Amino acid sequence: MPVSKKPRVAVLISGRGSNMMSLIEAASAPDFPAEIAVVISNRPDAHGLARAQASNIATRTVDHKAYADRAHFDAALDAVLEEEQADLVCLAGFMRLLTPGFTQKWAGRMINIHPALLPSFKGLHTHERALAEGVRIHGCTVHFVTPEMDVGPIIMQAAVPVLDGDTPDTLSARVLAQEHVIYPAALRLVADGRARLVDGRVSVDEFILAPPALVVPPAR
Length: 220
Ligand code: GAR
Prior knowledge:
Layout: E1 8-13, H1 18-27, E2 35-41, H2 47-54, E3 58-61, H3 70-83, E4 88-91, H4 100-105, E5 110-114, H5 126-133, E6 137-144, E7 154-161, H6 168-192, E8 195-198, E9 201-204
Parallel strand pairs: 1-2, 1-4, 2-3, 4-5
Antiparallel strand pairs: 5-6, 6-7, 8-9
């Protein structure tokens, strides 16, 4: 009987790589339906590169500073993804805007994790902005990547409470713990073909994750 090959995942990072590690750890389970084939950083000094190497994952660097503009950088990145025979791309703290041509080429095969409950708080400094707005519920989102930043079809979200006395650091830590739960779970759904793009939205055949407990702080 032919052995079916797991999809090869390229994880793109720019920094410490904690979400990358959650994907590597999840994919080390024999029943995980995808293989982390390579980690690619746009920063040569990204701490995540050493962490990936320590887990025996191949790493590549495509230094954005070596390219004149976004189009040339994206072409180089695309060439590396093709060389590595990537089937799926996971952006994991990858802090570069991608060109429409690149995102269109990888449409339906590239996913991102964002530290907020989209469509709220697109962009940067999400935890500071959530605290400034006084929201009581915050969280994180895994979505397919489309040309417009932080707008693509949503695969999975997790909510956390915002507690009195939270700082950006305490809130960020609470959200990050949930990022590490939902990113591997969402990749599993995509790699299994159980989360599919239908008419610009995500159809999920089966909801496999129990939502995290949400604690609503008592009124003062
Ligand atoms: C994560 O919180 C991720 O959601 C965020 O950067 C952090 C990377 O941490 N991504 C974005 O803000 C993308 N818009 P990590 O390197 O430890 O995974």
